[in-house]
Design a protein that fits this description.
2 copies of one chain form a homodimer. Chain A is of the alpha/beta class. Chain A folds into 2 domains: about 260 residues, Queuine tRNA-ribosyltransferase-like (TIM Barrel); about 100 residues, no CATH class. In chain A, about 40% of the residues lie in helices and about 20% in strands. Chain A contains 15 helices and 16 strands. An 8-stranded parallel sheet of chain A has the order 4-14-13-12-11-10-6-5. Chain A has a 3-stranded antiparallel sheet with strand order 1-2-3. In chain A, strands 7-8-9 form a 3-stranded antiparallel sheet. The two termini of chain A are about 35 Å apart. At the A-B interface, helix 3, helix 13 and helix 14 of A face helix 3, helix 13 and helix 14 of B.
Chain lengths: ~375, ~375
C-alpha cells in the first residue's frame, strides 16, 4: 500500500510531497539513481546514502537473467541483497527485452527472447514479469509493457499501445492480493496525443498506485517530448505519483516538474561520468577537451561535493585519459551529487511557490543540451 | 635528507623502524600501494588515508609520457597534483621502458624508445631519469637501471648489471646538490650470487640514501627468489632502508622481512581485486568460482573492513561477473586493507620479538600460492 501526500502545489502546476510504501519513504519530485544490475555504476550504496539518495531503481530483466531470482530471494530481496535499506523500484523489463534481447516471438501472450548474456531462451508475460518482480521484492514495481518504436507509423503505435494496455490489466490481475508492493502502470501512445489520451484513460480505470509515462525521450526533438508530456501528465490521476521514465538531463527534469511530474530515473549522471563528462551549474564540461589539460581549478567551482573540494580538472582529465577507474568514480559521484541537490532545490522552489522562476533561471543558465 | 631509525631488530633479522624524509614519515616494514599513473587503481586517496597507507609509489615513465612533467610541476609536484599529502616514491622508469615501450636503441648512454601510448620517440638517460624525478618531486626517487632479462645467460646478466651500476653512479652525479629528495640505488645481478655481491658492493660505495633489490619475482621459482634475497639483503648497508621492488604476495613479504627488508610495493592487491580475487587470512578466493554463487557470507569472515562488514560473496561475485566497477572497488579496497593490516601485524610481531613465529604461522595458514 502506497501513500502519497502532496504537501504543496506551485502556481506552475509543480507539486512536492512524500511517498511512503512499506514503511519506507521518499520526497518528491525524486530522482532515482539507476542500479541496473543491483549497483549504481561506480558508486557504493554508502555513497548514495551520503549523497542523500532516497530511492533507487533496478532492472528486473537484468536481475532475472543474472544473478537469478533464487539468490536474490534467498538474500531477502533486492534491498538486502545489495545492502540498500531505502525504498527500491524495479522496472518490469518491457523496455529492456525489446531493446537488448534478440527476440524470438512477440504475441499477445508475451515475448519470447534470447538472453543477451548467454543466448538462453526465455518467455516474459505480464504475469511472469510481475512474479519476477514479486521475487525481487522492490517496494514499487512496474507493469510489463511493449514500448512503441521510434519513429513508428501510427498503426504500429496504436497496436503496441493497445497491447500494453491489455497487458496492464493482466499485471493488475497477477498482482492482486499477492504482495504488498505498489504496482505502477505505464502510459504509452507514442507521439499521438489521442492515443496518449486513450491509454491514460484506460490505465486510470485500473487500480494502479502510481502512473508512469513511457516512450518519451527516445530520440525525438525536445519540443515534441514536452508537448506530449504537457498533454499526457494532466490526464493521470492527480492524487497518484507521476513517474517520467528514463528522463533526463537537469533541464529536462526541471521542465517536466512544471507538468506535475513527481519521479525521474536516468543513467546520464553515471554514464556521462564514465565518459569523462561532468554537469556543472551552467552546463556540461567534457574533460576530454584539450582546454582542460592544464586547468588546475575545481571541476565545478559552484559545487560543494568532495570531488570538487579535492581534485582538479587537469587531474581528473588525466585519470580519464589514462583509463583510471577513479575518473569514473569521481565524475559519477559529482554528477549524482548535482542531480540530487537539484531535486532538493526543486522541492524548495515549489515550497516557496517560485518553481517557474527557478526553472526559467536554470534553463537560461544552461546550454541547450545541458 | 632521509632519516632511518631502526627501533627494534628481531632475533630473525627482521627489523622495524621509521623513515622520515622532508618532514614526512612512514613506519617500516612498509607496503607501498602502487599509483602507476598517479592513482591507486579503483581507490581514492581518501580511502588510502582511511586504510592507513603511509606512503605510495608512482611511475616516472608513465607520468613523464602522460600527463607530462609541465602540468605536474605546475601543480606543485606529484603529491599536490594527486592530492596525497603523505610521502611519495617514484620508480625511475628503468623497468617500464624495458617492459612496456618498443625500444629503438640501447647504448651505454641510455635508452631511446617509442611511447607505448602514441608511438612518439623519447630518450631516457640516467641524467634525464633523475631530472624527470626532480620535476615529479616525490620524496624518494630511484636510480635508472637496466633490468636483467629472465631467463638470461650469465654474460647478459653481467652486462646489464655492470651497465646499471655505471648508470647508478651517473644518477648520483645528476642528483648531487640538485634536490633534497632521497635517491635510492637498485642492486641487480640476476640469479648469479657473485654478480649480486659485486653490484651490492659497488652501490654501497655510492652515497645512496636507501637500497633496492631489483630483478626478483620476475617469474623464477620462489625458492630461487628467496635464496638470492637471503644472499643479497645482508650485503646492503644495514643502516639504510632496504626495498624489495615489485614484491609480492603476503607470504612473500613476510618471508622477505626475515631477510631484513623494510619496504615493498606490488600491484597484486588491486590487480587481483579487478580480476575478482580476494586475499583472506588463509589464502586467496576467486569469486569467479561457481562455489560462491549462493554464498551469502562475508568475503573474509576474519576481516573487519567495510566491504566484509557490508557485502556478501554472492553479491560481489554477481558484480564482478556483471562487469560492475563496484566489484573492482570493493575487492581492491579489501585486499589493500589486508596488505596494510599485515604490515601492522608484522611490525608488532617484530617489536614483540616473535617475527619468525608470526611468519611460520602465516605461511602454514596460507595455500602455497596465497
Amino acid at each position: 500500500m502506497l501513500h502519497f501526500t502532496i504537501q504543496q502545489t506551485d502556481p506552475s502546476g509543480a507539486r512536492t510531497g512524500r511517498v511512503t510504501v512499506r514503511g519506507r519513504g521518499f520526497d518528491t519530485p525524486a530522482f532515482l539513481p539507476v542500479a541496473t544490475q543491483a549497483s549504481v555504476k561506480a558508486l557504493t550504496q554508502e555513497e548514495l546514502v551520503h549523497l542523500k539518495s532516497q530511492i533507487i531503481l533496478a532492472n528486473a530483466y537484468h536481475l532475472y537473467l543474472r544473478p537469478g531470482l533464487e539468490l536474490i530471494r534467498q538474500a531477502g530481496g533486492l534491498g538486502p541483497f545489495m545492502r540498500w535499506s531505502g525504498p527500491t523500484l524495479t522496472d518490469s523489463g518491457g523496455y529492456q527485452v525489446f531493446s537488448l534481447a534478440p527476440l524470438i516471438e512477440v504475441t499477445d501472450d508475451g515475448v519470447s527472447f534470447r538472453s543477451h548474456i548467454d543466448g538462453s531462451e526465455h518467455l516474459l508475460t505480464p504475469r511472469s514479469a510481475i512474479e519476477i518482480q514479486h521475487a525481487l521484492d522492490a517496494d514499487i514495481i512496474m507493469a510489463f509493457d511493449q514500448p512503441v518504436a521510434h519513429p513508428a507509423r501510427r498503426e504500429e503505435t496504436q497496436a503496441a499501445t493497445l497491447r500494453s494496455d491489455r497487458w496492464a490489466a493482466r499485471c493488475v490481475e497477477a498482482h492482486r492480493g499477492a504482495s504488498d508492493q505498489a504496482l505502477f502502470g505505464i502510459v504509452q501512445g507514442g507521439f499521438e496525443p489521442d492515443l496518449r489520451t486513450e491509454s491514460a484513460r484506460r490505465l486510470a480505470e485500473l487500480p494502479f498506485e502510481g502512473y508512469a509515462i513511457g516512450g518519451l525521450s527516445v530520440g525525438e526533438p525536445k519540443d515534441l517530448t514536452f508537448r506530449i508530456l504537457a498533454h499526457t501528465a494532466p490526464l493521470l490521476p492527480a492524487d497518484r505519483p507521476r513517474y517520467l521514465m528514463g528522463v533526463g538531463t537537469p533541464a529536462d527534469m526541471v521542465r517536466a516538474v512544471l507538468s506535475g511530474i513527481d519521479m525521474f530515473d536516468c543513467v546520464l549522471p553515471t554514464r556521462l561520468g564514465r565518459n569523462g563528462t561532468a554537469y556543472t551549474k551552467t552546463g556540461k564540461i567534457n574533460l576530454k577537451n584539450a582546454r582542460y589539460q592544464d586547468d588546475l581549478g575545481a571541476l565545478d567551482p559552484d559545487c560543494g561535493c568532495e570531488v570538487c573540494a579535492t581534485y582538479s580538472r587537469a587531474y581528473l582529465r588525466h585519470l580519464h585519459k589514462s583509463g583510471e577507474i577513479l575518473a569514473a568514480r569521481c565524475l559519477s559521484y559529482h554528477n549524482m551529487h548535482l542531480y540530487l541537490r537539484l531535486m532538493e532545490d526543486i522541492r524548495a522552489a515549489i515550497r516557496a511557490g517560485r518553481c517557474r522562476q527557478f526553472a526559467d533561471e536554470l534553463l537560461a543558465r544552461r546550454e541547450e543540451n545541458g
